[in-house]
Amino acid sequence: PPPPGATKTTPLTGWHREHGAKMAEFAGYEMPLWYTSAREEHQAVRQRAGLFDLGHMGCFQVAGRYAEAFLNLVTTNYAGWLHPGQSQYGFLLDPEGRVIDDLMVYRLGKEKFLLVVNAANEAKDWNWLCAVNSGEVLLDPNRPWIAPEGEVELVDLKAQGAADGRVDLALQGPASREVLSRLLPPRDQRRLRALRRTELLELSISGKEVLCARTGYTGEPLGYELYVYPQDAVELWELILDAGKPLGVIPCGLAARDSLRTEAGLPLYGHELAGELSIGPHEAGFAPYVKLHKPFFVGRGAYLEALQDWKREVVRFRIPAGARPVRAGAGVVDRTGRLVGRVTSCVALEAGQVGLALLWQRGVQVGTPLGFLVGDLPAGEIKLGTRLPLLAWGEVVPRFPDRRLLPRPGED
Q1: How far is residue 72 from each of residues 215, 239, 304, 367, measured CA to CA in Å?
Q2: Coil, helix or strand for 337?
Q3: Which pLDDT tens digit goes with each residue over 257-293?
Q4: Is the pLDDT confidence value at 405 over 70?
Q5: Burial grade of 50 (CB within 10 A; 0-12, 13-18, 19 or more)
Q6: Are the C-beta atoms of 263 and 200 separated by less than 8 Å?
Q7: CB 347 within 8 A of CB 321
Q8: CA-based radius of gyration for the chain
Q9: Could you tell me if 271 and 265 are in contact, meaning their C-beta atoms sit under 8 angstroms apart?
Q10: pTM of this prediction?
Q11: Where are the alpha helices (DSSP H) in 174-321?
């Protein structure tokens, strides 16, 4: 293992370097930002398909007799609804109702689950789950007797020597099914075609075992995440790119991943969830993934209190082409010039800029004009001659676009 504080790598880091990727550190990992350009890779996913290395994401296994009950306790969604071969999105909350992380939960068997968490929170999430499992933390200040029904087996699938180690590759876009089908025998091609959104199955690609889930973080209605053994990652990566080459499939970096998820209205931890603005799931537009019908989950009481005083909301906005770039953190004003919120994410696309902003009011209608500060307010006294930031004007658009109607290259 690398020494403490050293930049970590994925099984594909060497491949990225050899093939000219622009590399940068992200969440402690050396990761590709782009190969050609973020915009070209964004368009490839929307029009054809792109392949992403997500080897930085945390992968944990929860197993044993009490696995389902444990996940019902620590996550906001309801693991009991999952059959083997299904998955769900949810949140880890602390006892005060604050977001520890958002995550995907995959049910592999009756007593076996896979959790996929954000790379930046991998160590924090692992420590939290271990502390809950061992009874080291108070789960409800008002009911100190609440505890897990029994211990579960927790395995960090990226730890050195993990028996069933896994890393994540993502193939996203309308051509993704055709690409994978080219690597599968007829029976598995039929199984892949039958796979519905959020379902998963086991496949064999060139003799390599792959957990294939129809999930992803790009907003594409068709896309897959492939959980593979680390030692198979490079071979499978190259096989997929070779199979996809005639269809225009290319490797993609984290910049396109960010622009795709922003365009689709999907949150990023630290931007539209938690972070310095302490954004909750309900404010981010994801209240349905907090199952309040459950008698208890960690943070439920505090979350219910937060709902009683709910005044903020994340909106998605669009700014026409030609405006100066708007950055995360920029102030948002209404048509009278009154400050009403802050930008959390913004990206430049062909048809203009699209982004997400936290407004200090709820129920702002689609089509409402908003102004975005381009530059910072000057420090000190404002007087004649002081340069003030420009405003870029845009409008509120639907919080989540119809995924079937996401803009394709050349379209508005």
Answers
A1: 21, 38, 17, 39
A2: coil
A3: 999 999 999 999 999 999 999 999 999 999 999 999 9
A4: no
A5: buried
A6: no
A7: no
A8: 22
A9: no
A10: 0.94
A11: 176-181, 186-194, 233-244, 254-263, 281-284, 300-308
Write down the pLDDT at residue 159.
86
Spatial contact of 68 and 77, defined as CB atoms under 8 Å apart: no
Instruction: Quote the CA–CA distance of 167 and 174 in Å, as a whole number.
Output: 23
Cα distance between residue 188 and residue 198, in whole Å: 18
Residue 336, token pair as written in the block: 């009278």
d(CA 214, CA 114): 14
Biggest CA–CA distance in the chain, Å, is: 75
Q: Can you tell me the distance from the alpha carbon of 266 to that of 344, in angstroms, rounded to the nearest whole number?
A: 12
Nearest to 252 by CA among 22, 11, 1: 22
The mean pLDDT of 170-185, rounded to a whole number, is: 98
- 211 with 166: CB under 8 angstroms? yes
Q: What is the pLDDT of residue 409?
A: 40
Element (DSSP H or E) covering residue 332: strand 331-333
Q: What is the number of other CB atoms lying within 10 angstroms of the CB of residue 321?
A: 11
User: Of the candidates 77, 55, 56, 57, which has an alpha carbon nearest to the alpha carbon of residue 68?
Assistant: 77
Q: Which residues pair with 226 in a beta bridge?
A: 169, 212
CA distance 292 to 300: 8
Coil vs helix vs strand at 125? helix
Give the pLDDT score at 411: 35
Nearest to 100, CA basis, from 73, 118, 115, 87: 118
For 94-124, the pLDDT digits (tens) are 999 999 999 999 999 999 999 999 999 999 9
**386 backbone dihedrals φ, ψ, rounded to 5°:** -65, 130
